[in-house]
Specification:
The protein has one domain. It has 376 residues and is mainly alpha-helical. It is built from 15 helices and no strands. It is found in: Membrane. InterPro entries: EmrE-like, PUP_plant. This is Probable purine permease. It is a multi-pass membrane protein.
Length: 376
């Protein structure tokens, strides 16, 4: 994903104690007096931006996943072209640089371009491999099953954040990890789901393993990006986060193009487009809007990274879990059997547990900040 991609494609910052903070410059006293405050003490503009980012992330990730599944149901076969569209829309992100330019360049430390290039290349190649696993999983799984297995990325995120970013594992977070792992495992062993897409049991198992591996890799990418911002880049601006997304997506897109030609799949694209059940124009529009959707999801991810944290953006991405299966049942007539419903409820339970821990951490940090201000 991202989404994206995300998105992007799948796309990360930090949370309270263990993650890299990308702080918003404190407003002056005059600005603070003029800004409308919510009961929680945050400016109204902050809540509005977070709401828009959440909408972009959920809408972009949901539409991109459904369009990716539509591509395969209408006769698409190329995994490389599917991986390509997950990052190929990155030029859209250049427009956001004009709306969110860096306001405090003097506060950033300079990182050698050679070191940055190595970071972008390594992360970009990992993203390309992650995209291939995601597209392989989506090819062999129903969209509803695929989205539920993706819930495991939150559990993997906790593990990598603990190892690489010293994330504190509380009982609520551990509970979330167990629940989300159970949710994914239920889908993996489900016999009822295997006949939905008309693929063999072996391909269904392959799709399950690929999707689970992609979720694990995506969480590793987030943790590596957090570590990179903390120890190497050290730029606390939205433009720095955007540059990370843009240039890693550029590398991932280039890798997908190389894979497309090296595998020989490019030779079959013309025939694939001609044989697309809903027509050539629909074929092109499906790929185009899938690419746009992944970048919309990535914009939501980046916005949440800047306004809140990378961990929170990953949590919000799981909100699409009950959304994608619903639309998959409506659009593709996926069967919502008992196992999927139980898995969905467990995933939602795990998500709420994780979100409640985030709320408690924020409340604790606010109380500590208030205490420090009183002492000062």
């Amino acid at each position: 994903m991202a989404d994206s991609n995300a998105g992007g494609n799948n796309s990360s910052g930090a949370a309270n104690n263990a993650e890299v903070q990308i702080p918003i410059p404190a407003p002056s006293k005059a600005e603070a007096a003029a800004a409308p405050e919510t009961p929680a003490g945050k400016p109204f503009r902050w809540w509005a931006m977070v709401a828009v980012d959440v909408f972009f992330l959920i809408a972009g990730q949901t539409s991109a996943t459904l369009l990716g599944r539509y591509y395969y149901t209408q006769g698409g076969r190329s995994k490389w072209i599917s991986a390509f569209v997950r990052t190929a829309g990155f030029p859209i992100l250049f427009f956001t640089l004009f709306f969110f330019p860096s306001k405090s360049p003097s506060s950033c430390t300079n990182t050698p371009m050679a070191k940055l290039a190595v970071i972008y290349i390594v992360l970009g190649l990992i993203i390309a491999a992650d995209d291939m696993m995601y597209t392989g999983g989506l090819k062999y799984l129903p969209a509803s099953t695929y989205s539920l297995i993706c819930a495991s990325q939150l559990a993997f995120n906790v593990v990598f954040s603990y190892v690489l970013n010293s994330q504190k594992v509380t009982p609520l977070i551990f509970n979330s990890v167990v629940l989300l792992t159970m949710s994914a495992s239920l889908i993996g062993v489900s016999k009822e789901s295997q006949g939905v897409t008309g693929v063999s049991g072996g391909k269904y198992l392959l799709g399950f393993v690929l999707t689970l591996g992609a979720s694990c890799t995506y969480s590793l990418i987030l943790a590596l990006m957090q570590l990179t911002f903390e120890t190497i880049i050290k730029k606390h601006t939205f433009s720095a986060v955007l540059n990370m997304q843009i240039y890693t997506a550029l590398v991932a897109t280039a890798a997908s193009v190389v894979g497309l030609f090296a595998s020989g799949e490019w030779r079959s694209l013309r025939g694939e487009m001609n044989a697309f059940r809903s027509g050539q124009f629909s074929y092109l529009m499906t790929l185009l809007w899938a690419a746009v959707s992944w970048q919309v999801a990535n914009i939501g991810v980046l916005g949440l990274i800047f306004e809140v944290s990378a961990l929170f953006s990953n949590v919000i991405s799981t909100v699409s879990l009950p959304v994608i299966p619903f639309f998959a049942v409506v659009v593709f007539h996926d069967r919502m059997n008992g196992v999927k419903i139980v898995a969905m409820l467990i995933a939602i339970w795990g998500f709420i547990s994780y979100l409640f821990q985030h709320y408690l951490d924020g409340k604790k940090a606010k109380k500590a900040s208030s205490g420090d201000s009183a002492q000062g």
